[in-house]
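Quiz preparation item.
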C-alpha cells in the first residue's frame, strides 16, 4: 500500500496550496501521474508541491487553473499563489491582480499617490521604505512589494496590451515621495507613458471640486467577455465586485470623471509644470 503523507493545511500557506491541489486532483479521481501529463510537470514535482516541499510558481498555478478550469474564479490557484507570495498585500488585492493580468481595458482613479502601474522602481521603493520606517512591514516585505509592482507592470507587456485609462487627482502630482530627484523622474515617466498609444493619462484638477464623483481610489477592469470587475479598498481590506448592478454605476461615474478632467494634452502640460 502506498504511504500517503497526511497534510496539514493550517501549518503554512504553502501547505494550504498543496492540500488544495491534492483535494482537486482526488475529486477528479486522478493520480499524480494523470495530473502530471495534463499540467506538463513531472509527477515528482506534483508530489513535492502537494506535500509542501516545493514552492509553487506563477506558471505552475496558472497551469493548475487551466487544468481544473478555475482561472478567474475565487478558488483559483493563481489567487492562492499571490496570497502565498505576497501576504503583505491587502485582502482582496491578489484576486484583483489576477483579473488585471487578463483585462482588455483598465480604468484607474487615484488620489494622493501615483498608481502602481505607472510607478518608477525608485518611487515604489520610497513608498515601501516609508512603511518599513513606520514598522508596518519588514525590509524583506518591502522588497517583495517593489517586485510585485514590477510584475504587475510586466504583465501588461503582451502581444495585445490592454487599453489603460488613468485619471489622477492633482494631489498625486503634489504629494512629494522620496525627494525631488525621485519625484522628478516619476513625473517624467508619466509624460512618457502618456505618449504610448494604448495609454490615456488625465489629471483631475483641484478646481474640479464637488464635480469629482469619487472620494476614494477606484479600479475598473473590462475582461475579454466585456464583463466589468471593480475593485476598491478601505484602510484594512480590499474588495472585488463583479455584480453588474454595483459595477455599472461606477463605470458611468468614471466616464463623467473623464469628461470633467483635463484633456491629456492639458494634463501633460500640468505634469511638466509640476
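Solution:
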Amino acid at each position: 500500500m502506498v504511504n500517503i503523507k497526511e497534510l496539514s493545511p493550517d501549518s503554512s500557506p504553502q501547505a494550504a496550496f498543496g492540500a488544495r491541489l491534492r483535494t482537486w486532483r482526488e475529486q477528479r479521481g486522478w493520480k499524480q501521474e494523470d495530473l502530471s501529463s495534463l499540467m506538463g510537470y513531472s509527477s515528482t514535482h506534483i508530489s513535492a508541491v502537494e506535500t509542501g516541499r516545493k514552492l509553487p510558481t506563477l506558471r505552475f498555478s496558472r497551469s493548475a487553473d487551466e487544468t481544473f478550469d478555475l482561472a478567474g474564479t475565487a478558488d483559483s490557484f493563481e489567487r492562492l499563489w499571490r496570497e502565498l507570495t505576497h501576504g503583505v498585500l491587502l485582502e482582496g488585492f491578489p484576486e484583483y491582480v489576477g483579473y488585471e493580468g487578463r483585462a482588455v481595458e483598465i480604468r484607474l482613479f487615484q488620489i494622493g499617490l501615483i498608481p502602481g502601474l505607472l510607478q518608477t522602481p525608485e518611487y515604489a521603493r520610497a513608498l515601501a521604505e516609508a512603511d518599513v520606517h513606520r514598522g508596518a512591514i519588514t525590509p524583506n516585505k518591502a522588497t517583495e512589494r517593489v517586485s510585485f509592482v514590477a510584475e504587475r507592470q510586466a504583465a501588461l507587456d503582451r502581444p495585445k496590451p490592454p487599453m489603460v485609462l488613468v485619471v489622477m487627482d492633482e494631489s498625486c502630482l503634489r504629494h512629494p515621495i522620496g525627494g525631488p530627484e525621485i519625484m522628478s523622474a516619476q513625473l517624467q515617466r508619466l509624460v512618457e507613458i502618456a505618449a504610448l498609444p494604448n495609454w490615456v493619462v488625465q489629471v483631475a484638477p483641484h478646481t474640479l471640486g464637488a464635480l469629482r464623483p469619487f472620494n476614494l481610489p477606484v479600479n475598473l477592469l473590462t475582461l475579454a467577455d466585456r464583463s466589468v470587475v471593480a475593485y476598491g479598498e478601505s484602510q484594512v481590506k480590499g474588495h472585488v465586485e463583479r455584480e453588474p448592478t454595483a459595477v455599472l454605476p461606477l463605470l458611468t461615474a468614471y466616464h463623467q470623471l473623464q469628461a470633467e478632467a483635463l484633456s491629456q494634452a492639458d494634463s501633460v502640460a500640468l505634469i511638466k509644470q509640476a
